[in-house]
Design brief:
Largest sheet: none
CATH class of the largest domain: Mainly Alpha
CATH architecture of the largest domain: Up-down Bundle
Number of helices: 18
Strand content: under 5%
Order of helices and strands: HHHHHHHHHHHHHHHHHH
Radius of gyration: 21 Å
Length: 412
């Protein structure tokens, strides 16, 4: 046995072993699981906190916008810092900040002093924290496990979040009904703090030394982003795909469920089916290791057009549920494949910034899509718009699949 092999087996276990044999990865996974249990319950509690304060759809929309916009605005700065500082420390501070924001909301709601303005301010701070957490988390796995274990590691990180998405909203709903939204929000705050302490304990070394100013780092990151056609083409396609998906699924889905199916009950089943598909897709990634990862990523992600098409055609609820399961499987396969491609193809020193450029590109058109759908709904039915959304996803996928470099990216 060579010295390199002996060192590898001492740190990571035998080659081909599970990432779960790596102690620091288990710690990271535990932190993610704890945080996910609170994050999956929080939307229900936040919605009812706004409603309980006398707010309606407009107030909730303001709160959600206050959370989303800062994330997009600060993502690029988060990417720069992820390449310049200790990523474990960024995750620690980010989770601590998110926990403080949720704790403030919990106190406001519990004391009866909450308003749309105060909740929005807290949501804004939470969104800023998310902007720093996401790029740093993108580059954590590559420092915890060897490259041959990256797909398994990325899939295992997805398991806790996908699993709790099935049951946590139900538990959160019961918690809000029995104890009130303040207690559920307090639980979410506590999970962020515990996760922060676990992440600080990772003590990951090897942070990238800064080479210049923030603007210079952004320029270098943009040059790296443009030089990879598989990356920028996927981001451009994702701008259309993500916007069409969210506008169709989140905005029009509940409306069509109310008009053509049995309302909230049917929509709850669709969401449960989609979450079950996400969890199933995670387990697919644990056993299936395709060679052309980038092509699989592009094609698998297109499955999200199926529930939109099924709702647009007003197929039976059974067909919609099957489509939602397939969409969930495909989307999770795409997410795990994409994370693995990024970690294998992008140098560690650029991972934060290039991931941030991708994230901004995929999010930037979402508000525009919501506005366009609102305007189009005055002239077309929701079903027609859903079919257009499905068509946009299909067209963007085919265009992306035609990019030559998509076929060239293979598993490292």
């Amino acid at each position: 046995m060579t010295t390199t092999t002996a060192r590898h087996e001492q740190e990571y276990g035998p080659r081909g072993a599970s990432p779960l044999r790596v102690p620091v990865f288990r710690r990271f996974l535990l932190a993610h699981l704890i945080s996910a249990t609170g994050s999956a319950m929080a939307p229900v509690a936040l919605a009812f906190a706004v409603i309980g304060n006398g707010g309606g759809a407009q107030s909730l929309g303001i709160v959600l916008a206050a959370n989303t916009v800062p994330t997009v605005v600060f993502l690029l700065l988060g990417g720069v810092l992820a390449d310049r500082m200790s990523r474990s420390r960024i995750l620690f501070l980010g989770n601590l900040g998110a926990g403080a924001a949720q704790a403030a909301v919990a106190v406001l709601v519990a004391t009866g002093t909450a308003s749309t303005l105060t909740i929005s301010v807290c949501a804004c701070f939470s969104g800023v924290s998310a902007a720093f957490i996401a790029p740093a988390a993108q580059g954590i796995a590559v420092r915890l496990v060897p490259k041959e274990q990256l797909q398994q590691a990325n899939a295992l990180v997805r398991v806790p979040g996908n699993a709790v998405k099935i049951i946590a909203p139900v538990v959160g709903g019961f918690g809000v009904a029995l104890a009130g939204p303040a207690w559920v929000l307090a639980w979410d705050a506590a999970t962020f703090v515990v996760a922060a302490l676990l992440l600080l304990g990772l003590r990951l070394g090897g942070s990238v030394s800064p080479r210049g100013g923030v603007v210079g780092d952004l320029r270098a990151g943009w040059a790296g982003f443009r030089s990879r056609s598989w990356l920028w083409s996927y981001t451009v396609a994702g701008t259309a795909v993500v916007a069409a998906w969210l506008a169709g699924y989140q905005l029009l889905g509940p409306l069509v469920a109310e008009a053509s199916y049995s309302g909230a009950r049917s929509w709850g089943l669709v969401q449960g089916a989609f979450a079950a598909g996400l969890l199933a897709g995670t387990f697919v990634c644990l056993v299936w290791k395709p060679r052309r990862l980038m092509l699989v990523c592009v094609l698998a992600g297109s499955g999200i057009m199926l529930p939109l098409a099924a709702l647009g055609l007003e197929l039976s609820l059974t067909c919609v549920l099957v489509a939602a399961v397939i969409a969930g499987i495909g989307l999770d396969v795409a997410i795990v494949s994409w994370s693995t491609v990024m970690q294998q193809q992008v140098p560690d020193a650029e991972l934060g910034r290039l991931g941030a450029f991708n994230a901004v590109g995929e999010r930037i058109a979402i508000p525009v899509a919501y506005l366009l759908v609102a305007l189009a709904s005055k002239h077309w039915t929701s079903q027609h718009i859903l079919l257009w959304c499905a068509g946009i996803i299909l067209a963007a996928t085919l265009a992306n699949a035609a990019v030559r470099d998509v076929y060239r990216i293979e598993r490292a």
